[in-house]
Predict the structure.
Amino acid sequence: MLKKNRLWFRSALLAILVVAVGYTIYNSMNEESGTYISKGNTAPNFVLTDLNGKQVELEDYRGKGVFLNFWGTWCKPCEREMPYMQRQYEKYKEQDVEILAVNVSETNVSVKNFVDRYRMSFPVPMDKQREVTKAYGIGPIPTTILIDKNGKVVERTSESLSEKKIISFMEKIKP
Amino acid sequence: MAEISSTLLYSAFIIYLFSTLFFAMSISDKKGKDAVHTKKWGKIGFISSCVGFAAQLGYFITRWMASGHAPVSNLFEFTTFFGMMMVLAFIILYIIYRTNGLGVFAMPIAVLVIAYASMFPRDISPLIPALQSDWLKIHVTTAALGEGILAISFVSGLIYLIRTVDQTVSSKKTLWLEIILYSLIAVVGFIFVSVGFKGAGYETTFEMMDDNNQAVKVVYDMPAIAGPSNGEQLDDSFGSLFSTPSWMNGVDASVKLNTFIWSLLAGGILYGLLRLILRKRIAAALQTKVKMKPDLLDEISYRAVAIGFPIFTLGALIFAMIWAQQAWSRFWGWDPKEVWALITFLFYAAFLHLRLSRGWHGEKSAWLCVLGFWIITFNLIAVNLVLVGLHSYA
Amino acid sequence: MMQTITCECGHSNPYGTSLCQACGKPLKQDVEVLSSMRYEGSARRSQTYKQTFVDKIWNFFSSVKVGVWLIVIILVAAAIGTIFPQETFIPPNVDPATHYESEYGTFGLIYYLLGFHNLYGSWWFILLLGMLGLSIIIASLDRGIPLYKALKTQRVTRHDQFMKNQRLFSKSNDVELDEIKYTLESLRYKVREEDGNLFAEKGRFSRWGAYVNHVGLIIFLTGAMLRFFPGMYVDDILWVREGEKASIPGTSTEDGQYYLENNDFILEMYDKEEKKFNSALSSVDGEVAKNYQSNVTLYKTKENHTIGAEPELVKVKNGEIRVNEPFKFDSFALYQTDFKLNEFYKMSFELEEKATGNKFGKLTVDLHDPKKEYDLGKGYKVKIEEYFPNFVLNDQNQPSTVNNLPDNPAFVFSMYSPKTPDGEKAFVGIQKNIDSGENQFKMSFAGIETKDLTALTVRKDHTLWIIALGGIIFMIGVTQGLYWNYRRIWIKQNAGEVWAAAHTNKNWYGLKKDVEFLSDKTNLTPLEEKETASK
């Protein structure tokens, strides 16, 4: 009886420690851990003015999938993925997937030129004071956050996206 | 005030030297003399080391008054203070164990540390914002006291080895023992060449490109054996024999390497001379003079670790963490100096486990004490001078 | 049922015990009494039986040898991490993949490829620390509990063999037991008596030091681990321009969001003329900083503030942040970390006719929010066609910008006048003014405004108190274990003789002084020291 208890005790202690250390290692590998918005969290609401002076509020898109992209005109990988995003936007717009391309702290002049050049038709909220960028803990750009129709974060990535990847993302958040 | 301070330090230095001499008298075993002789000279030695310590304390206080902050803020001040803490640690252990032989080795090593310290710039320097904190004095003094006590464990361990390593045959042990003694002598060599070339007013200048491709002048105060990487000598004194490898960091890496080579050379010459005079290994020559009981030496070195380890942990890790939290917003940042303090901690932790649980007494323990001191000096000197980091303000 | 061994004194000991817990009799033939005293000859739980896989792992980590190896491996790994700077210490804008090779050659490349540039955050280093933690827990449980039992059950009367084998031992005749007891008590020993035998002990609590400090270490390591759990830790950086307000990252809750205003950034240098530091200051090239300080005001928004919306701010308090003097609110602290002096803020230009030098109005461009068009009146106006905040010529020799910071602003202007209604274009940057050569007008530089920025580290750390608690417990344990020692003296009546033995876990010198004092004051034969194994 005593022996059995001891085995249980030992197994339990070892298991707890293995889980604790494992979780620590997992979290330390995962750069976006901590307080920042990552998989499974509810994406916090925000409101920004877009390039055309219109108010864009995240909550208004409840019921739709939101492809939330943080970008800058000076960032080469951002520039690369813009045409792909535009093309897929045109296809998925009817399927209730919206793209919000939040510009990180740039001027209307620069962004306007860029938007015209790439004929971007999705809203470009201007995060001049970096409020949203800070709240979402955005480090490197581009960072893309996928939000489903319930406002939950499905995916977060800082990779430069291929068109194929964008399609798979769109499929993922299609309501 | 600053002048009084320097005078006091100088006096302390001289008194320490005399104290070494007195302790040496006490163990000089001429036939016919006895316990009375030992006791008398031991007492004189002890009193003189206390007087020396008082003088150095005077230096510390007056320099504090002169500068307005605790004089532990640059390499000169810190290393001097470390020497002072070594003397204090010796005094404490002497009070417990009353062993004159310990003084014969502890005092000259403390003298060496202080002499080494005075080779750094001795100006009273202002505190940069990061150092403007009460934790400067709390952290640095506690850490230095811990290190000073741990240094005594090295001294005691070293005497143990001199006393017990078999000198009738040449072995790995005798070789390592000679290497340890040689490195102590190389410090003397360093002081000789530094003072010597400075006295002669030697200087040679090179021009080299720094990391930002700016031309900078590198001034040597010793003949350049190791020149800077991609440097050009601007005068026609003795040219360099080879260039410092470029991976060595910083503009004055080559100057440091050059000084290091000169110290080794000078140490080599001194060592060679000693060997010629003694006609045997230095440790063998010392062995005939050392009569202390190995058991007692073993106990002293262990006791020093037992006393020093908690103080070191408190000063070099815990107080350091509190300060780092306040100054740099994180209590731990894996800065090289922090890491080496952790290494020191881990090393002595391993030492205690080996000793308490696995019975590593005597010789094994003595070798470990020597290694521990190597780690401490590495952290004191090399981390500041060689590795880059937040602590390289000297 | 577990096997037990019953000693002749009647006490039953767990299997594997080498010295009887009660009387100290060696229970096996080949037991060396002195070295067994480290753990009172008690059975280390792990070594008594080996059965399941779990037990094998347990036994592995229970060994001090394994623990010491773990310490040594961590030590060596930590040292390797200092050979070259870690990734966090290299310049922020370089690629580590190339930096290590270009800076340190082949060794640098190998260092990088082995992942040593991020050694302390690597999975294997964390795993090593985890294993050390495991080893500390298991080894302490395995030794601490049996030791506790053994010290609790120890009896006054000890077995002859136990007595004889102690390092300090003597036999005497004709001794006053009361006298011994009195003397020992005067040395502050706790003395127990049984059948005319004495047992005196002092400082038993020091035996727990090792276990207390291990508990402290485990708490410390747990605190370090919790840092990786969500919500425990915020570490961010906040740049604020003078005169501006910015939201403080990580401080957003339903109660609102904190904002910080940078009223003034102060940089002070030491006066080179100051007599005290004269010689030190004259030997350095640049100036030596005396103070970095931000004067700030903390605000909070109303409840349920939506991120990005114009905040309704309520002032909370003013503060001064200096190095070593963080600014605290709620569970947050702001630290002075960095600054940037004189960042370009507004740039002014005048529209000038090249031929005459006549000027037709001035415009001031906010570099963070330039207008598209500046009307100078009377038919004169200037349009900004393009704006490059941090101008650079890119790979294709096209003007572009490095980032969004206005460190090297450049513009493409269109200048309109009654004379040139179709507009003339010019590229204008810092000390650059390029046009086709046929322009009648130009933009001439007319001044610049700058602002200082302060950078503050935003920190919340809910693990600090755990770490601190661990540190305090560790210090208590290590002091208790190393500054005190457990001394024991046994006196036993044995067939007309009186046997005396003494033991301590450390500081034999102190114990010897005690027994010398004892034999001086009583008729006890001085205890003699046995040759120890170390010689």
Remarks:
- Chain C touches chain A through 49 residues (CB under 8 Å).
- The CA atoms of residues 343 and 420 of chain C lie 35 Å apart.
